[in-house]
């Protein structure tokens, strides 16, 4: 087994619950340096620190699994899964079941869609334990699930030296499309061809939050995907909602979702560019959600992030009526609340517009935020009122 010795003092953050060890924090490595191999980690003073997955191709050299000298086997994964299930009681039939580091195993993402699990293996280490992980899930869920489907086709898979694997791992092949229900709204989900694993469970709290402003509203859902916010606006009383996304397939699903929920006459679903639409439309709105995809990948791109969010926010604010409600979301850890606030403030410079902060809402609780792991807080939605 690989043995990793840390530089002096670098063990402190690991003992406090952080799970990443970077290359420049390591003093010495012995053993064959293979991606995904288990390694034992020691302090400079030869104190045992923990066990994790080694990576030779990433700047994160070790991802910690445990602070104990224990076996990594089916029972190890089963115990982690039991804890994850326990803290998600009351979430219904469909939710994020396991959220990587935040649930204690770097590299495993699992979404539950009623009787099917959809899983991503996001590093070589967990991929090496694929059989043990699947067996643990079968032991835990038993007849509650019909099948387990893999969607390890995420865009950064090559950086982790992974194949973009997609396909059935256990049981029945899930249907191409099926319907889930979240807080009274029905959604058609395509777990095989949709973005991520098919649905964005992390926005549950914000989808519910927008309902309080929806009665009699004229709403706009920018970067709508399959219409999570548009549907909640329409079902909860909006007069009219425009939804725009440049994913043509998602727009088709949005239209089907609108019909499924009986609000097809209220929602105009448009395939196109959000900023171009806002620039050219004559419509004014009083409720708006702007939830763009991840716009920056590194902290060094902060200036770029401010400029992009400033431009997007401005395009929305200029189409909002006085006293209108706007939410701007960031789904990147690197784009923090301070960046959002700065971007919003600068978006209305010299316009005589005041931005009244109403709330900041983070990801839903099935995507845990662990205080010792800052990166586990990634989704932030800033809710503001426009005052002229």
TrEMBL record:
Known PROSITE patterns for this protein?
A: PUA
What are the GO BP annotations of this UniProt entry?
methylation; rRNA processing
- Which keywords annotate this record? Cytoplasm, Methyltransferase, RNA-binding, rRNA processing, S-adenosyl-L-methionine, Transferase
Report the GO molecular function annotations: methyltransferase activity; RNA binding
Domain PUA: residue ranges: 2-86
One cellular-component annotation, GO: cytoplasm
- Localization (cell): Cytoplasm
Q: What is its main location?
A: cytoplasm
Q: Which PANTHER family match?
A: RIBOSOMAL RNA LARGE SUBUNIT METHYLTRANSFERASE, S-ADENOSYLMETHIONINE-DEPENDENT METHYLTRANSFERASE DOMAIN-CONTAINING PROTEIN
Annotated family: Belongs to the methyltransferase superfamily. RlmI family.
Name of this protein:
Putative SAM-dependent methyltransferase
Give the species. Answer: Marinitoga piezophila (strain DSM 14283 / JCM 11233 / KA3)
């Amino acid at each position: 087994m690989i043995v990793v010795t840390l530089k002096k003092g670098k063990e402190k953050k690991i003992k406090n619950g952080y799970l990443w060890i970077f290359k420049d924090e390591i003093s010495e490595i012995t053993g064959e340096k293979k991606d995904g191999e288990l390694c034992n980690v020691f302090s400079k003073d030869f104190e045992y620190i923990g066990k994790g997955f080694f990576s030779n191709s990433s700047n994160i050299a070790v991802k910690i699994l445990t602070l104990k000298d224990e076996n990594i086997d089916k029972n190890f994964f089963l115990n982690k899964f039991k804890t994850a299930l326990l803290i998600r009681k009351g979430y219904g039939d469909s939710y994020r079941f396991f959220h990587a580091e935040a649930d204690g195993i770097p590299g495993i993402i699992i979404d539950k869609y009623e009787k099917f699990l959809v899983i991503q293996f996001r590093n070589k280490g967990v991929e090496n334990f694929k059989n043990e992980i699947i067996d643990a899930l079968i032991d835990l869920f038993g007849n509650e699930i019909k099948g387990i489907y893999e969607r390890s086709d995420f865009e950064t898979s090559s950086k982790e030296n992974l194949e973009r694997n997609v396909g059935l791992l256990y049981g029945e092949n899930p249907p191409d499309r099926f319907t889930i229900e979240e807080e009274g709204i029905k959604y058609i989900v395509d777990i095989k061809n949709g973005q991520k694993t098919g649905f964005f469970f992390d926005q549950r709290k914000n989808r519910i939050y927008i309902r309080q402003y929806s009665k009699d509203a004229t709403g706009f859902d920018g970067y709508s995907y399959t219409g999570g916010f548009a549907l909640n606006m329409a079902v909860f009383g909006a007069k009219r909602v425009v939804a725009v996304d440049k994913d043509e397939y998602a727009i088709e699903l949005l239209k089907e979702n609108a019909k499924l929920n009986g609000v097809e006459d209220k929602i105009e679903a448009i395939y196109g560019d959000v900023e171009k639409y806002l620039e050219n439309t004559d419509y004014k709105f009083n409720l708006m959600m702007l939830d763009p995809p991840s716009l920056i990948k590194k902290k060094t791109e902060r200036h770029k992030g401010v400029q992009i969010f400033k431009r997007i926010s401005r395009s929305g604010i200029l189409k909002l009526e006085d006293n209108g409600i706007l939410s701007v979301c960031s789904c990147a850890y690197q784009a923090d609340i301070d960046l959002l606030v700065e971007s919003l403030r600068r978006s209305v410079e010299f316009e005589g517009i005041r931005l009244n902060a109403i709330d900041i809402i983070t990801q839903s609780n099935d995507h845990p935020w662990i205080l010792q792991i800052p990166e586990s807080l990634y989704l932030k939605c800033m809710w503001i009122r426009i005052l002229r």
